[in-house]
Write the structure tokens for this entry.
Amino acid sequence: MKTVEQHIRDVLDLVEPLEPIELDLLRAHGGVLAEPVTSAVSLPQFDNSSMDGYAVNADDLAGASSDTPVRLPVVADIPAGDVSPTAVRPGHCARIMTGAPLPRGADAVVPVEWTDGGQATVAVDRPVRRGNAIRRAGEDVEKGSTVLQRGARLGAGELAVLAAVGRASAPVHPRPRVVVLSTGAELVEPGSPIGPGQIWESNSYMLTAAALEAGCAAYRRGFVGDDPATVLETIEDALVEADIVLTTGGVSMGAYDVVKEVLSRLGTVRFDKVAMQPGMPQGAGTVGESATPILTLPGNPVSSYVSFQLFVRPALRRLRGLPPDPLPVVHARLTAPVPHSPRGRRSYLRAVLEYDSGGGSTAYTAQPATRQGSHQLSALADTNALVVVPEAVTELPEGSVVEVLQLPAHP
Ligand code: AMP
Ligand code: MG
């Protein structure tokens, strides 16, 4: 049997970051920046007002108070976007709106709240500091500076930065296209009537959603039966739109383990037993002319889920141009014992991880789900972590401090 670490390495050897392409901003959303972005301009590009008010010379208002307001003639009205060359001489002012260019001669903006709001003349009831309510050119971004680093994930904030410096597109590693296919003669589409011996198909929904949550473009191919020719044909069909293919089912030791059967013939996919529970049977390799990576996950729903978290997730990260980090680890105290764990295999137990503010040095608790069978998927609904039970450990008392893998929060 192979170790979990070895299988992670083998899977990662199959993938490399997707070729960068230049994408329009909203298409680039969720992509990973392939080069740093520098700004060709300063932001703001010109001195402007941060408030609705009046552009003045601060010296003119030195003696202003509520008893003795200073009255100034208003010589211009400057809305945002105004380009007329306005100047404010001493003793005068201009009405100005937020974001409008500061007129020449003015050195402060008085907010409208400090005035009577006059249009021909305005009374100001207090002095103003020089520079008040003025946004200076370059105080946000200096021309030529790097505004986004290579490797940045383009979310809402990053798109705002790109747009604000005038970029309509960005060079990104695009979202990987993940195609998900399940196999099994017993599978039926949810919503359809079910016959004896059949089950509603769930793995492909789970994996497609997990791939979407991991920042990929994911496509559910649905499921096929256990006919070798159909399975191979469907996999080959899927390659046109896939950067990586995920299959579930048909990889263990059964007589109808069709994925293993058809892919073994190609000789480019390796099937191994990995020393873990759930999820022992795993396959990884490439298919088709472009040597598209394919990961064949076991059919038991929990095995498939854990396989995604351990092996698929880092592979998807590498395809995205991110470091292939594993899930973050925290230490937690078990709130229930683990009565048995198989010797020689690492167990991953679904658990609910909680922050315990009174917990001292181990601030987390982990409550393992009571139903841990690889077919018992009901606990997936609340699971937010996986408790790791090492290969050599066969049981753990309540209160043991264990390693816990934190699953990402739902989007
Ligand atoms: P297999 O790996 O194909 O031998 O399947 C192992 C177990 O997982 C069997 O009980 C299957 O019925 C079940 N299973 C396989 N594929 C799926 C699926 N897509 N959705 C739900 N259960 C599945
Ligand atoms: Mg099967």
Notes: The longest helix spans residues 301-320. DSSP finds seven helices and 26 strands in the chain.
